């Protein structure tokens, strides 16, 4: 993800928080209208995305920079599904329901949770996350949003894959930045030393949520003027020559079977 220039950060953060408050006020209006569950389910994903962005801000404000991005991959998945759901409609909802049925069946079988396996029918499974992200990018570009396909693909690789590597799973990426020092004298840090401060990720995630909010509001006939204005005011600047920095910088980690001099 490019490194943004966060000028006027306090003002941009307040615009983002005002956006999230605007969405919060609208949630009760996103009710089922008798025309199917697609729209209200997309609204539920919007509600979830809002909470995940708020969690990012709460963690960052409490100096938990090394875990600020933990909600980022779940948020991105919810955003993809909601955008896919709004365009694909009932077929997408049926896949979501069948996926839930398969998951509850498995948990009931393995852990005897006692959940109702008959809540939804069996059906076609969900596509992969990569497939859903590509589908969303294709539809956005087809609707006139230039370079949307390339942007969404880049997001999948630079955010989804990176957060899987460094934040979600317990591979070496989760702990590399707890090390500091050179090969010959490595020390452990109690707090992982990450490259950023979480501000750019928070604003980026807020923009995603604003795009989803616009789509959901339109479906329910709600005015989008206020959220459009707040989105413009909180946009971070990404200069063309901004370096493509990875979100985490691995240290000089000692290699296995290395000679005493590190060679």
Characteristic terms for this protein:
56% helix, 263 residues, 2 strands, single chain, disordered C terminus, mainly alpha, 3% strand
List the helices and strands and how they pair.
Blueprint: H1 9-26, H2 38-61, H3 72-88, H4 90-111, H5 129-142, H6 148-168, E1 179-182, E2 185-188, H7 199-219, H8 225-234
Antiparallel strand pairs: 1-2
Q: Give the CA-based shape.
A: globular
Q: What is the tally of beta strands?
A: 2
Radius of gyration: 21 Å
Q: Helicity range of the residues?
A: 55-70%
Structural class of the helix and strand makeup? mainly alpha
How does the major sheet shape up?
A: 2 strands, antiparallel
Total count of helical runs of at least 4 residues: 8
Average pLDDT reading? 84
Compressed to H and E, one letter per element, the order equals HHHHHHEEHH
Low-confidence stretches: 239-251, 256-263
Strand arrangement, major sheet:
1-2
Can you tell me the number of structural domains? 1
What is the strand content? under 5%
Query: How many angstroms separate the termini?
Result: 33 Å
How would you sum up this structure, described in words?
The structure is a single chain. Helix content is 56%, strand content 3%. By secondary structure, the protein is mainly alpha-helical. It has one domain (9-234). Strands 1-2 form a two-stranded antiparallel sheet. The radius of gyration is 21 Å and the shape is globular.
């Amino acid at each position: 993800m490019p490194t943004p220039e966060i000028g006027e950060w306090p003002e941009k953060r307040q615009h983002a928080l005002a956006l999230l408050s605007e969405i919060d006020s609208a949630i009760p209006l996103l009710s089922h209208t008798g025309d199917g569950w697609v729209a209200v389910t997309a609204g539920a994903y919007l509600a979830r995305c809002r909470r995940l962005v708020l969690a990012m801000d709460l963690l960052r404000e409490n100096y938990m920079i090394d875990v600020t991005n933990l909600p980022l991959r779940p948020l991105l998945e919810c955003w993809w599904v909601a955008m896919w759901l709004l365009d694909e409609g009932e077929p997408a909802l049926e896949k979501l329901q069948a996926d839930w049925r398969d998951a509850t069946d498995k948990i009931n079988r393995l852990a005897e949770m006692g959940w109702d396996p008959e809540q939804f029918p069996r059906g076609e499974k969900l596509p992969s996350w990569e497939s859903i992200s590509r589908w969303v990018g294709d539809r956005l570009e087809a609707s006139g949003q230039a370079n949307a396909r390339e942007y969404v693909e880049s997001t999948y690789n630079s955010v989804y894959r990176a957060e899987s590597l460094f934040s979600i799973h317990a591979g070496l990426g989760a702990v590399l930045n707890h090390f500091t020092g050179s090969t010959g004298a490595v020390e452990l840090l109690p707090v992982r030393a990450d490259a950023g401060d979480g501000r750019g990720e928070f604003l980026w995630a807020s923009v995603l949520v604003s795009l989803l909010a616009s789509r959901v509001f339109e479906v329910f006939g709600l005015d989008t003027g206020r959220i459009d204005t707040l989105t413009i005011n909180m946009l971070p600047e990404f200069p063309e020559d901004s370096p493509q920095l990875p979100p985490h910088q691995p240290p000089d980690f000692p290699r296995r079977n290395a000679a005493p001099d590190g060679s």
